[in-house]
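During the no-cost extension, the postdoctoral fellow (Dr. R.K.) reprocessed legacy sequence entries with the updated structure-token encoder. One reprocessed record is reproduced below for audit purposes.
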Amino acid sequence: MAAMETYDVVVVGGGPSGATAAADLASAGRKVLLLDRAGRIKPCGGAIPPRLIKDFDIPDHLLVARINSARMFSPTSRIVDMPIDGGFVGMVDRDVFDEWLRERARSQGAERRAGTFETITRDSDGTAIVTFSCKEDGTARRQSDSVSVRARSVIGADGALSQVARQTIRGGDRMPYVFAYHEIIMSPKNIEAEFDAKRCDIYYQGGLSPDFYAWVFPHGDTTSVGVGSANKGFSLKAAVSTLRQSSGLEGSTTVRREGAPIPLKPLKKWDNGRDIVLAGDAAGVVAPASGEGLYYAMYGGRLAADAIEGYLATGNARSLATARKRFMKAHGKVFLVLGVMQKFWYSSDKRRERFVSMCADKDVQRLTWQSYMNKELVRADPLAHIKIFFKDLAHLLGLVAPKQDSR
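Re-encoded structure tokens follow.
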């Protein structure tokens, strides 16, 4: 029997997180296998902030749209416009964006393989053995359909229902999540549709989502129309159909339909204390309330790569825990604030109405966009934060009536 090939790192999952980790480790001279399921496109609004574009050297040609405002709809259909002063949010198509990232990893020296992860077992010397189906449709059942390789280390970047996490990380089988569903449609040309190619529309309405929100995100020639919810009895497809009808998008050609779980908060543990670390959705790094995950996925992938590099260089498995420690130090407060906000403001239409009204405030808008664009809490304007605190308290106590339609 031929000896199994040995890699320094096997990265399971070729989304933005896994592809970023693979590129970083390959560029550092490590022997990397990037394993990804062929043909998989994750449902995603596709928004990327300037911080991501800068930190990860994203070329302009991948941006299919530049968004300069957001429009928020309350349960009573009051509308609040939130313009972005002096900036923009980039939009990408995930099929093109993810493939470009995988190809960048390959160009740095990573080996790409199409396949579906099956198991991690151990060789006689304790080295991890990663087994995966080599059939593109992932239907392998016979032993001859599977391939096994040895791995000095493994990065699990295989999504919110990560099999790597479930098999190897304590608590990895208890990921809370919402389920997202969207339909990619051809961007409308008809004037009946209330559509702006440079604006994102966000709906905080219980009829469209009882615990999250719905959206219309332009992508140049196409548009993502979607909704998320953790309520298993709620029909996401029916909600999207309702949204398309009410927003004048019912007649637009549907390109494809996609659904996937979106994690609600980071797992408490990202590594096995031995040779495996998680990244991206597998680690739970999607921002609560907003559902934003691309920047956090890629940043988490980079931290996972740094942690693995430290482990490979020193043999000290404690290096693996630095991925989560560094992430939570940088973004833990943001996730905490957004988590509290989602639980409170999204819990009823009455509170959603007040939340949208609160977002009409110019201080709230300015600090929200600054935090989003730069991926950190804004501390440079303490007076604005104090003003927002008291305004927020007034809305919370019902001392402020919801503002009228801002159009």
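The chain has a mean pLDDT of 87. The two ends are 72 Å apart (CA to CA). The remaining legacy entries will be reprocessed before the final report is submitted.
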